[in-house]
Fold:
Amino acid sequence: MVDLFLFLTFISMKNKNLFNRKGLKSFRSSLRNRSTSAEAALWDSLKSKNLDGRKFRRQYSIGSYIVDFCCPSEKLIIELDGDPHGEYYKIQEDENRDKYLASLGFTVLRFENRFVFQEPEYLKNEIRKVINKKRTDLINQSTTPAASNLCNTLTIIVLRPPLLQKEGKVL
Structure:
């Protein structure tokens, strides 16, 4: 366990310039000031440790990317996707971005904007499920002899919620 702590400390020192780069500060600020209604509504649920005491950051930069919401302690990223994210080239960009973030050990959850308003409890429960699964996996790995290989483990989880249907029509 001490080896894991030392490794994580080394990684955090190595990646010190990876998070919230100063060059992106004004852009992050402008994104926060002109957030979508879905982002504002989800932020109300996440800010001030409202979701199970987890601290989330809004418009957080990782490398050259700015993510909608990030819980650094859980290495969890939440992205809200509007209409432009349904286009083929944007889906490809999102997949490349998600792979990069996953290579840093982050889990990326993507939800369509409408879920914030139509299914807020579903959205929060999905976030909780991923946090609990990551916690359980970490506990299980630390109690096995393979714990020394923990640093080499890469997990990619991208949730795309099912389409909502009402009277046979997709909403």
Q: What stands out?
A: The longest strand covers residues 65-71.
